[in-house]
């Protein structure tokens, strides 16, 4: 079981979209996937069409039976977020609270991948995600604000690794909302490569192009592969998910043949050699 956290302290960088698309593509490719919405805003849950007023992430962290908390979506299972998570700092005040998610996930069996969507803040919930995860994907828009915040974010990840989760690694930096028509994106890419090298990680060779179909699919509460399987965003996220799969030790020759084929020939590829970085029973909430 691989646990992957999608994170950034900055909002609007495609973090939730990346978590949703990765979970969906892994799921439709034949893998068993659980998505965990760790963001009180609940954007992942809303975009998935999750039922409201059902037990979810909050209850799961408080030791409710998993079968009472997990909702079954078309391509993945989901622990949905709700506004109660906004009280996490006060509600989860016990000693060792950074390990709540890690310990809760140990009760689960049968999942090959667990995808964690985190809030745009280094809160106790995000720290729980970093403590539980095997790897982190840092989602960054190709702009100066994302670049300038990278040092602080990587510092936080390093501290989480040092004090809470020695196995944690940064799988790579994913560039999102990429505009192939501007030189700014190209210039920013080079700067991100240099930063990645400093941190002992890499920039994924797949970049996610800006595409209005993403917002449309989220409005319709479905994933991009179901909504528009041949659009640029679907091509890019399919290519990225396979790249992530290999980065985490997967054998590309063993990628399930049941995977819906996506043409990724036109996906933007960034020339950079990869570096090796040192069921469901719902219940009403009471």
Number of helices: 13
Second rung of CATH, namely the architecture: 3-Layer(aba) Sandwich
Whole-number count of domains:
1
Helix-strand category: alpha/beta
Number of strands: 7
CATH superfamily: P-loop containing nucleotide triphosphate hydrolases
CATH topology: Rossmann fold
Mean pLDDT: 89
Stretches where pLDDT is under 50 for at least 5 consecutive residues are 261-266, 270-284
Main beta sheet strand tally, sense and closure: 7 strands, mixed
Overall shape: it is: globular
Provide the spatial order of strands within the biggest beta sheet. 3-4-2-5-1-6-7
The CATH class is identified as Alpha Beta
Strand content: 5-15%
Listing every helix as H and every strand as E from the N terminus to the C terminus, the arrangement reads: EHEHHHEEHHEHEHHEHHHH
Distance between the termini: 31 Å
Helix amount, in percent?
25-40%
Compute the CA-based radius of gyration. 18 Å
Written description of the protein model:
The protein has 13 helices and seven strands. With 286 residues, the chain is α/β, with parallel strands linked by helices. A seven-stranded mixed β-sheet has the order 3-4-2-5-1-6-7, sandwiched between helices. Helix 1 packs across helix 13.
Brief overview:
The chain has 286 residues and is an alpha/beta fold. The protein contains 13 helices and seven strands.
């Amino acid at each position: 079981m691989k646990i992957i956290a999608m994170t950034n302290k900055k909002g609007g960088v495609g973090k939730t979209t990346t978590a949703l698309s990765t979970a969906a593509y892994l799921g439709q490719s034949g893998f068993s996937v659980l998505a965990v919405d760790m963001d009180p805003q609940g954007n992942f849950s809303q975009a998935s069409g999750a039922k409201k007023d059902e037990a979810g992430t909050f209850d799961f962290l408080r030791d409710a039976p998993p079968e009472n908390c997990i909702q079954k979506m078309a391509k993945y299972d989901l622990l949905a977020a709700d506004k109660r998570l906004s009280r996490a700092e006060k509600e989860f005040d016990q000693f060792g609270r950074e390990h709540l998610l890690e310990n809760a996930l140990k009760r689960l069996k049968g999942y090959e991948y667990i995808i964690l969507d985190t809030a745009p803040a280094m809160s106790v919930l995000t720290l729980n995600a970093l403590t539980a995860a095997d790897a982190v994907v840092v989602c960054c828009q190709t702009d100066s604000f994302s670049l300038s915040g990278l040092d602080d974010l990587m510092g936080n990840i390093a501290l989480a690794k040092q004090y809470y989760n020695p196995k944690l690694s940064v799988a790579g930096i994913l560039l999102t909302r990429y505009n192939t028509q501007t030189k700014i994106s190209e210039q920013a890419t080079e700067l991100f490569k240099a930063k990645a090298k400093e941190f002992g990680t890499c920039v994924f060779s797949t970049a996610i192009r800006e595409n209005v179909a993403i917002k449309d699919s989220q409005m319709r509460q479905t994933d991009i592969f179901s909504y528009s399987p041949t659009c640029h965003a679907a091509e890019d996220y399919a290519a990225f998910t396979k790249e992530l799969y290999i980065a985490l030790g997967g054998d590309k020759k063993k990628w399930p043949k049941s995977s819906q084929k996506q043409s990724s020939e036109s996906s933007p590829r960034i020339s950079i050699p990869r570096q090796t970085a040192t069921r469901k029973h719902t219940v009403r909430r009471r």
